[in-house]
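Instructor's aside before we start: the two examples that follow are unrelated to each other. I chose them only because their records fit on one page, so don't look for a connection. First example below.
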Amino acid sequence: MTSAIDTLVWQTLASVAIPGYTINRLCATSMYLLKKHSKLPSTTRKWTTVAIDFTYIAVPFNHTICTNVICGLI
């Protein structure tokens, strides 16, 4: 039973809490910096923040897939 609880807690942290918090802070920081240091309109700032966050999510994920799955099969 202890092993199941440990697994549940670890998986919750690893797949939900830590990535969610990290992405939230990245969004908040990029929005703050764009608001403070640029003269972009509000809508453009929001979409720029989305683009920054998608890049943050996609690049490490794609690198991991290439390194561990695709490149490992060659």
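Example two begins here.
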Amino acid sequence: MSHHLFVLSPSDTPLYSLTHQSTKPVPSATSPLASNLPTWSTSAFAGTLTALSGASSATQHTSSGAVRVGGGQDRHVIQMIANAGLDVIEDVMRKETAMYLKSVDKFNEWTISAFVTPGNTKFVLLHEGKNDEGIRAFFMDVWELYVKVNTSSMYIGDANGQQTMLNPFHTAHSTIRSSVFDNRVRASARKYL
């Protein structure tokens, strides 16, 4: 099962993105539209139709040996789905005061979950399965890491002697390029997703 995280600034500028392939078991589900598409191997637009339908041009093998269709969309299609969900996120933000907005939208097998910080930074997660508690815990970890990136100190050691990056030069609209941030978000994704 794949997960796609996007961290967006208050002005919806991309700050960070992550694609994570989970090793946890996935309930098998296929898109009804994908199963009805003809297999056009010579068509110039077959890849786009397949990607938009929720199908994958390449099959994926699960740990149980089953073959599964879906989740192999091109990067631009994933970004399009996430961007399309921003309007729904804005609507939900007007109605709810919670930071974790749970599942705000769905596109074929992709569910869009969102978390909005008090500074209006948006964490958008595209995922295929239902894991509300794991996603909430993941968002809380990512938020804590994001706050550390935006805090005004340099490097400090944590209880394990590892360095945590607290960058005085980072602004809310700067792309996050910290390898420490990336490694810790990946570790959190492995733990919760």
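The radius of gyration is 18 Å.
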